[in-house]
Design brief:
The complex is a heterodimer of chains A (194) and B (426). Chain A has 194 residues and is α/β, with parallel strands linked by helices. Chain A has 6 helices and 9 strands. Chain B starts with 7 loop residues before the first helix and ends with a helix. In chain B, helix 3 runs parallel beside helix 12 and helix 15 packs across helix 17. The chains are: A alpha/beta (194), B alpha/beta (426). Chains A and B meet through helix 2, strand 9 and helix 6 of A and helix 1, helix 3, strand 1, helix 10 and helix 11 of B.
């Protein structure tokens, strides 16, 4: 499939469907994006598992670090890979050895490996690249609107007051059909330059 | 559930707004408060560290203002927006993210006189150097690029004469040079023209004009298109390098395609301080709900008045891109097919003297220094908005001494024409 842009429905179905998320490259350093993405997803009710061999023996927000995906010992719905583009493939290979297989491979904002995506899709997994699940959850729920971000969704329903641990509805009306034309152009500009 | 695209008018009414979580109020409430309580110490620290969504202090975010921001971002097709106290404040905040002392930016010579003044004089004390280019000559932008250039700035429909800028041609120059293109879209509004669709990376507005539309509130806004890669070539360290004031966060790495809007908020607005009042945000939001209806009427009236003036024996020339045969008519049909806006100039055969007489004889048009009001407005730019320019610069910017500028309102066009007729025959 085309990974330059995703429809809101595609992202919404993933975020509504998954319950357990293993984050490869989760950091205990509280100013790293992986730390606060992990924290946000945990606060929105996902069962989060931090994966980082450098921090085994420690825990992240009460969840013990594991060294690798193969040491988790229970089914995982989604692997969120917080690594550079060049380090995606080893993490994916490990994910493909898991039983049962995870349903979704998610590569963080800035990370993209088309060969890894093709391999995961060939194994029947869904793939998202170069996106942040925290941003996408915040966008589809409109929680991110507090920062003036265009959620590209509308709703005439009274919004709930978000409290700790609460799942938010992602089923608002989409207005952008996924990415904006400008984002498509940005992706195109980038590929023209490389 | 299918993703579908609602139209512009639906977005103008709904984007960003939702019934209030606490009270169910359908219209966006005015959150007239300086500050917001934290849930606990961890929540406070997360908010201060840019790690959680939520409000701290109205200088940084405010729930009323956030609705305005999302609405304009949606109308412009951007990823995010930041509202500030005025259009001038928007320009300062944008350029503060891009320029260091000693850097340059290229700006079109045809701009609102206040912008010419801000760029020429106020920015000099920051060490930001403006290099002027001619919007009618794309090559002049290309020739102005140096290793110190950090941005290109143009107006989509340019003040005072309502001339149309070839945004795509200048965007090609910007892309080739690796520079962001900033477009001031105040006179067009996204209803007539969406610069991001034509290659703009950043859009700025004076909300004071057609977006607010009622002449009652100052405001400005910055829209991030999400199109520019700020981390290339290390040219934009505010976005690409670790920020010491946020524990080493890199803004682009953390916020992706809305990083510029976040930088403007947390490095610009937070530290420079030109926050929009929530009350102004509310008034402007209310104005935007009728933007499509108002712009249709503004443009219809402007065209009728421009046509009438161009047939009047006392009139030497009318500069309105919506007129067949105008120098900018082809560009207007390409970029603003719904209408060429409602701000334009004309000159009288009687020169400066006749212009001054006209202004003082008008009874319905208001003589004041604003545009984009429901009311029709008139001004003599050479002695007011463009008075700080020397004579040569006045002519180059379209504000020659014999030029009168009109901003056509949404009254009945017959009444506007009757007022001009009596004033011209007095």
């Amino acid at each position: 499939m085309n990974h330059d842009s995703y429809s809101d429905d595609y992202i919404r179905e993933i975020l509504n469907g998954v319950k357990t998320i293993a984050m490869v490259g989760a950091s205990p350093v509280n100013v790293r994006p992986s730390y606060f993405a992990f924290k946000y997803l945990a606060q929105r009710g996902y069962d989060m598992i931090p994966v980082n061999p450098g921090h085994v023996g420690k825990s992240l927000l009460g969840k013990p670090f594991v060294a690798s995906l193969l040491e988790i010992g229970r089914p995982v719905d989604m692997i969120d890979i917080f690594r550079n583009s060049s380090n995606i493939m080893p993490a994916l290979d490990e994910a493909l050895k898991m039983t049962p297989l995870p349903k979704v491979i998610w590569m963080q904002l800035g990370a993209r490996d088309d060969a890894a995506a093709a391999k995961a899709e060939a194994a029947g997994l869904k793939v998202v690249m170069n996106r942040c699940p925290k941003i996408e959850y915040g966008r589809l729920s409109s929680e991110i609107s507090w920062m003036g971000v265009n959620s590209r969704t509308l709703s005439s329903k009274r919004a709930p007051i978000p409290t700790l641990g609460m799942r938010l509805s992602l089923n608002r009306m989409s207005v952008g059909g996924g990415e904006t034309t400008a984002s498509d152009r940005a992706a195109k500009n980038k590929s023209e330059l490389t | 559930m299918n993703d579908r695209l609602p139209g512009f008018s639906t977005l103008a009414v709904h984007a960003g707004a939702q019934p209030d979580p606490t009270t169910g109020a359908r219209v966006t409430p005015i959150y007239q408060t300086t500050s917001f309580v934290f849930n606990d110490a961890d929540h406070a620290a997360s908010l201060f560290g840019l790690q959680a969504f939520g409000n701290i202090y109205t200088r940084i975010t405010n729930p009323t203002t956030a609705v305005l921001e999302e609405r304009v971002a949606a109308l412009e097709g951007g990823t995010a927006a930041l509202a500030v106290a005025s259009g001038h404040a928007a320009q300062v905040v944008v350029l503060q993210q891009l320029l260091m002392p000693g850097d340059e930016f290229i700006a079109a010579r045809k701009l609102y006189g206040g912008s010419i003044n801000q760029f020429t004089h106020a920015f000099k004390s920051f060490g930001w150097n403006v290099i002027w280019a001619d919007p009618d000559d794309v090559g002049s932008f290309e020739r102005a690029v140096t290793p110190h250039t950090k941005a290109i700035f143009i107006e989509s429909i340019a003040n005072p004469a309502g001339s149309i800028t070839d945004i795509e041609a200048i965007s090609a120059v910007a892309r080739k040079a690796g520079l962001p293109l900033i477009v001031d879209n105040t006179l067009a509004t996204p209803y007539l023209l969406r610069p991001i669709d034509h290659g703009a990376d950043i859009v700025v507005h004076s909300l004071t004009k057609f977006l607010g539309g009622h002449g009652n509130s100052l405001g400005g806004i910055i829209v991030d298109a999400g199109t520019f890669d700020w981390s290339k070539n290390n040219k934009y360290p505010m976005l690409s390098e670790p920020r010491p004031e946020y524990h080493g966060i890199k803004i682009q790495e953390t916020f992706g395609n809305f990083a510029f809007a976040i930088a403007c908020r947390v490095l610009g607005l937070r530290d420079l301080g030109p926050a929009l009042s929530p009350f102004n945000a509310f008034l402007i939001l209310t104005g935007i709900e009728t933007l499509p209806l108002r712009m249709q009427k503004h443009c219809e009236n402007a065209k009728a008045v421009a046509e009438w003036l161009s047939a009047h024996p006392a009139v030497a020339a009318v500069s309105y891109a919506g007129l067949a045969g105008d120098k900018y008519n082809n560009l207007a049909r390409k970029y603003a097919p719904r209408g060429a806006g409602a701000v334009f100039t004309f000159s009288l055969k009687g020169g400066y003297e006749a212009g001054v007489n006209l202004v003082s004889n008008l009874k319905l048009f208001s003589h004041l220094a604003n545009v984009g009001d429901t009311r029709s407005l008139v001004i003599h730019p050479a002695s007011t908005t463009h008075s700080q320019l020397d004579d040569a610069a006045k002519v180059k910017s379209g504000a020659a001494p014999d030029v009168v500028r009109l901003s056509i309102g949404i009254e009945d066009k017959e009444d506007l024409i009757a007022d001009l007729e009596q004033a011209l025959s007095t």
